[in-house]
Amino acid sequence: MKERIFTATMHPNRRTVLKTIALFAVGATAAGLRGLSEDQPADDSDASKIRAKLKAIPMDQKVNLTNDEWRKILTPEQFRVMREAGTEAAFCNAYWNNHGKGQYHCAACDNLIFDATAKFDSGTGWPSFYQPVKGSVVTHTDNSYGMSRTEVRCARCDSHLGHVFEDGPPPTGLRYCMNSVSLRFEPEK
Predict the structure, then answer these.
(1) Which of 9, 101, 116, 137 falls between 20 and 30 A from 46, CA-CA?
(2) 128 pairs with which residues across the strands?
(3) Three-class SS string for the chain?
(4) Positions marked active-site
């Protein structure tokens, strides 16, 4: 009996883990990013050249930029999340409560990642989808924060997008829990 109680206290349920991560992310964002601009990076000549280079790469080809190049075209928050596998704060990001029709693209390379028809309200505070566009993402095991999760990355530029969990709705039973800062929403016209 003692072993069962010990096991229960050592393995909190997924919602508790998510709440803990959300509180950590809020604290880290408030403490670590104070004073950093959320605006788009300045469109200096280097950034313009990098954006032109990126646009010239066909959508079916991989994108390989250096960290210095990514820093010039991503905001500090986008770089922290997308290139350093960070997490943005829950319930105060751009798309967690977006119900518009359209498509979600990778904020770094413009790869089409999700259609809005696959979005659902997970109650977690991050935009959640039950299925990505076929071939748009790759997954990896992530053992950070003392737990094992499945990390989701853009298949085109290898940017961190979020994680996928097996507690989503039909038809897939999956919940792709994404960072808004990793996405760009394009409304349906």
Answers:
(1) 137
(2) 120, 177
(3) CHHHHHHHHHCCCHHHHHHHHHHHHHHHHHHHCCCCCCCCCCCCHHHHHHHHHHHHCCCCCCCCCCHHHHHHHCCHHHHHHHCCCCCCCCCCCCCCCCCCCEEEEECCCCCEEEEHHHEECCCCCCCEECCCCCCCEEEEEECHHHCCEEEEEECCCCCEEEEEECCCCCCCCCEEEECHHHEEEEECC
(4) 177
Token duo for residue 96: 């967690």
pLDDT tens string 67-79 = 999 999 999 999 9
Residue 144 Rama label (left phi>0; alpha psi -120 to 50; beta): beta
Task: Write out pLDDT tens, residues 111-165.
Answer: 999 999 999 999 999 999 999 999 999 999 999 989 999 999 999 999 999 999 9
82-94 pLDDT tens trace = 999 999 999 999 9
